[in-house]
Design goal:
This protein is an all-alpha fold. The chain folds into 2 domains: 3-58 and 163-207; 61-161, no CATH class. It has helices at residues 3-21, 31-55, 61-88, 92-97, 102-107, 110-126, 138-189, 198-207, 222-229. The radius of gyration is 31 Å and the shape is rod-shaped. The two termini are 44 Å apart. Residues 214-220 and 222-230 have low confidence and may be disordered.
Length: 230
């Protein structure tokens, strides 16, 4: 959550606390108790959603970068072998498909690299017996496959954690909207006490204030402060 949302959540807590402490002052409006319950449910959804966001399993940027770099190196080594193999055997499909450079691979989006690596891995596997002169064996292919698999896993983790965070964000946003509706109703209900119980009314209004501590006023230059005091 951002600072504004944190501050708003504190306000929701404050309203609940104040109204609960003042229960003896609004017995003629039991509907207020229902509104307190609605705020409590919204607050629980917001708090649990935020807790989930803070602890959801993801991957670090460095982990993703390293996996991508290793996959790119595997891509270049294997595609270089298949390119030359295609040239020697007049396999135009290989010589055209695997005529790639480091700059080409670096520019590809993840989805493009994934598609290319899947095709590359299968072509190497199908021609493994002819690729020994290029230093490619069952053992080395296993190492390259491990790089590819690790890269695919990091992408999966990233997409999964992103999806879960988006889901939590939606739940939090809806809970804040629900709380806003409840607070609007409470604002109208508390008008009942504007004249009959000004202390209760003013206390409620005070609890409804959002203190945005994330914003600081810019300090005026000394000469301006001096002029303002004269």
């Amino acid at each position: 959550m951002n600072k504004r949302q944190y501050n708003k959540l504190k306000m929701i807590y404050a309203v609940q606390a104040y109204l609960n402490e003042s229960r003896t002052k609004w017995p003629e409006l039991p509907v207020i108790s229902e509104k307190i319950g609605e705020l409590s449910r919204a607050q629980e959804i917001i708090s649990s959603g935020n807790e989930f966001q803070l602890h959801v399993t993801g991957i670090s940027g460095l982990e993703k970068l390293n996996a991508r770099k290793n996959a790119e190196r595997t891509c270049l080594k294997l595609s270089g072998a298949l390119y030359d193999f295609g040239m020697k055997t007049s396999n135009t499909e290989f010589s055209q498909l695997y005529d790639v450079t480091p700059s080409d691979v670096a520019k590809w989006r993840d989805v493009n690299l994934v598609i290319f690596l899947n095709t590359l891995k299968e072509d190497v596997r199908n021609n493994l017996g002819s690729l020994a002169p290029y230093g490619i064996s069952e053992s080395t292919l296993g190492e390259h496959t491990a790089n590819i698999t690790r890269y695919f896993e990091t992408i999966g983790k990233k997409e999964s954690s992103t999806a879960r965070r988006k889901s939590a964000n939606k739940a939090i946003a809806q809970a804040f909207r629900d709380a806003d509706e409840t607070l609007r109703s409470l604002d109208k209900l508390m008008e009942h006490f504007r004249v009959s119980d000004t202390n209760l009314y003013n206390g409620y209004k005070s609890s409804r204030s959002i203190w945005d501590r994330g914003i600081r006023k810019k300090k005026l230059p000394d000469e301006v402060q001096t002029a303002n005091t004269q």
